[in-house]
Amino acid sequence: LLQLYGPLNFLGSVYSGIRTALVDLEHMLGLVDEPVEVSDTAEPVALTTRLSASHPARVEFRNVGFGYRPDRQILHDVSFVVEPGHKTAIVGSTGAGKSTISRLLFRFYDVTSGAVLLDGHDIRDCRQADLRAAIGVVPQDTVLFNDTIGYNIAYGRMDATPEDVEQAARLAQIHDFITSLPEGYDTQVGERGLKLSGGEKQRVAIARTILKDPRVLVLDEATSALDTHTEKEIQTALKAVSARRTTLVIAHRLSTIVDADDILVMKQGRVAERGTHADLLALGGQYAAMWAAQASDEGA
Ligand code: ATP
Q1: Sign of CA dihedral 6, 11, 16, 19
Q2: Is residue 70 classed exposed, middle or buried when 0-12, 13-18 and 19+ CB atoms within 10 A define those classes?
C-alpha cells in the first residue's frame, strides 16, 4: 500500500475519496494487510455527517462480543456509552482488547454478538462512507504523503483554505515549527522530503483531524515516551481537538485521562472496572495499582 501513495499523489483531488479510504485503513493501527469483511446493507441508514461542533455523536457498545477467529473470543460482553461531547478512556494491559474496540467502532470487522451504535443506529445498518466520515482517528503513528506539509494537513478537508490550514496548525501546536522551516508550509515531507519526528507527525495528524472536524474522535495514544516538552505540546493539541467532541481515547499514560468522563479498565477482553479517575482510585483495584506504578515511574 505504501508504494501506492506516490502514484496516487499525482492523480489529484478526484481520487481523494480513494485516498481517504487508504489513509483511514492505514490509520487503523497497522491493519493494511487485513481484508475489510463488511458490506453495506441494501438500504443503509444515512448518518448525519455534518461538522461536529453542533452535532457531536453518541456512541454505544451494547453487549459486544468479538473474535478475529471463531475459535478465539477477544471481547466479552463489552457495554459502554459515550454521550455526545463526552470523553471515555480505555486503559488496560497489552492485549486486553483496547485497539479492537476502536476497530469495531470504525467497522473494520462486524461484532460477533451485541451491537455498536452511532446515534442509536446499529452501524451495520449505516453507510460505511458516512460512518468513516463521522469518525476521525489520530493514530499512534501517521504515515505522511510525499507532498508538502501544508498538503498533508489540508488533506483532512480538501476544500480548506490556506487560512483554515494555518488555524488548524496553530491549534495543533505545529504552526511555529512549520514557519521555522525555510519553505514553511511548502516544505516537502515524507519519504522523499523532510523526515518529521514522531511528535511532529502526530501534531500533523491532529491538525488534519481538526480540519476534518469529525463527530467522533478516536485518539490512539503513542506508547513510546515523548520528551516532556513535546508531550506537553501534544496534550495541548489534543485538548484543542477533543474539546466538546465525543471522544474515545486509548490511553497508555493515565495522567492524560484524569479528566475523562468515564474510564474503562479492560482485562482479557472484559470491562473489569469503570468510573471516573476519582472513583477508580477509591475502588483500590487494578486502576489504582496502575496509577501508583506510573506515579512511581515518573517520580524515578
Ligand atoms: P496494546 O496495548 O498492546 O495495543 P490492545 O489492548 O490494544 O493491546 P488489541 O490490539 O485489541 O489489544 O488485541 C487484543 C487481542 O486480539 C490480542 O490477543 C491480539 O493478539 C489479538 N489480535 C489483535 N489483532 C488481531 C488480528 N488481526 N487477528 C487475530 N488476532 C488479533
Answers
A1: negative
A2: exposed
CA distance 111 to 63: 10
CA-nearest residue for atom 20, ligand 1, is: 95
Greatest Cα pair distance in the chain? 58
> Which of 221, 289, 229, 224 has its CA nearest to residue 257?
221
DSSP annotation of 15:
G
Q: Are 152 and 200 within 8 A, CB to CB? A: no
Task: Assign 49 a pLDDT band (cuts: 50, 70, 90).
Answer: low
Ligand 1 atom having least distance to the Cα of 34: 27
Question: 67: CA distance to ligand 1 center in Å?
Answer: 10
pLDDT single digits (tens) 80-98: 999 999 999 999 988 999 9
- One-letter amino acid of 161: T
**CA–CA gap between residue 159 and residue 161 (Å, rounded):** 6
Q: Show the cell assigned to 216.
A: 467522533
